[in-house]
C-alpha cells in the first residue's frame, strides 16, 4: 500500500499528497511498533527479543530493541 501511495505521489507531486504520504508512513511505523512487535514478543518471547536486538525494524542495524 505504501509503495502505491509513493508511486502516486511521484506521478502527482502536490503538497497535500506528499504530506499524506509522510503521515501514512509515520502512522504505519507507529502501528508496527505498538501492535505487531507486542504480538511478536507475546508469541515468541525471548527468541524474538534476541532477534530484534540483532536486526533493525525497517533498515538493518537501525531501530534495534535494547
Task: Explain what this protein looks like in three dimensions.
- With 66 residues, this protein is mainly alpha-helical.
- The protein has one domain.
- 74% of the residues lie in helices and 0% in strands.
- The protein is built from 3 helices and no strands.
- α1 (2-11) packs antiparallel against α2 (15-44) and α2 packs across α3 (46-54).
- The longest helix is centred in the middle third of the chain and has 30 residues, at 15-44.
Query: What's the count of strands?
Result: 0
Weakly predicted, low-confidence segments: none
DSSP summary: helix tally: 3
Separation, N- and C-terminal Cα atoms: 30 Å
Q: What is the number of domains?
A: 1
Largest sheet: none
Shape by Cα distribution: elongated
- Give the integer mean of the pLDDT values: 83
Beta-strand content bin: under 5%
Helical percentage: over 70%
Helix-and-strand structural type: mainly alpha
- The run of helices and strands is HHH
CA gyration radius, whole angstroms: 15 Å
Give a short overview.
This protein is an all-alpha fold and 66 residues long.
Quickly list its features.
66 residues; mainly alpha; 3 helices; 0% strand
How are the SSEs placed, and which strands pair?
Layout: H1 2-11, H2 15-44, H3 46-54
Helix pairs in contact: 1-2, 2-3
Amino acid at each position: 500500500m505504501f509503495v502505491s501511495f509513493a508511486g502516486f505521489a511521484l506521478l502527482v507531486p502536490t503538497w497535500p499528497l506528499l504530506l499524506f504520504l509522510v503521515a501514512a508512513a509515520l502512522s504505519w511505523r507507529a502501528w508496527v511498533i505498538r501492535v505487531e512487535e507486542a504480538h511478536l514478543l507475546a508469541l515468541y518471547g525471548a527468541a524474538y527479543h534476541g532477534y530484534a536486538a540483532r536486526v533493525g525494524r525497517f533498515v538493518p542495524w537501525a531501530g534495534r530493541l535494547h
